[in-house]
UniProtKB/TrEMBL annotation:
This is SRPBCC family protein. InterPro entries: Polyketide_cyclase/dehydratase, START-like_dom_sf. The lineage of its organism: Bacteria, Bacillati, Actinomycetota, Actinomycetes, Kitasatosporales.
Length: 150
């Protein structure tokens, strides 16, 4: 099992951050590796399911995922039901003193031999770097949007 973690800040309230990150339909908007998402049984909530496709490390991967926790402004969690390997993801949200949001992302994955002989430490680094880059771009986009609001 590989566990990857990363903490980042978004310049919006926890409620707004949660709305962006916990809604799978938003994933292609901010995750570079996310190619497509299809909601299977309605809007995001505990028990909702979706199909998500990623292009990462030269591989195209499609998973069926279930949202297991959905606490607006506090926590969202999901896990794979079907796909080339299993993973569990969690976002925990905390309000910073300035009203922005601290997000702690955790990802536990059991890739088996899906990525061949790639060392687990390298896969962890690829996952963290991907979230670091994507969350940085999202934070900058949100800052720019805030500056252009009347």
């Amino acid at each position: 099992m590989i566990k990857a973690e990363y903490a980042f800040d978004l310049p919006v309230s926890p409620k707004e951050a949660f709305a962006l990150l916990s809604d799978p339909a938003q994933d292609p908007e901010w995750q570079a590796a996310c190619v497509d998402v299809r909601l299977l049984n309605g809007a995001a909530r505990a028990g909702s399911r979706y199909e998500i496709t990623f292009q990462l490390i030269g591989k195209r991967m499609t998973f069926t995922v279930e949202v297991t926790e959905f606490e607006p402004g506090h926590r969202s969690k999901f896990h794979v039901l079907e796909g080339p390997f299993r993973y569990i993801g969690t976002y925990d949200y905390t309000e910073n003193e300035d009203g922005s949001t601290g997000v702690h992302w955790t990802f536990e994955v059991e890739p088996g031999d899906y990525f061949g002989i790639m060392p687990k430490s390298l896969l962890r680094k690829v996952l963290v770097n991907s979230v670091k880059k994507d969350s940085g771009k999202l934070a900058e986009k949100l800052r720019q949007e805030a500056r252009t609001r009347p």
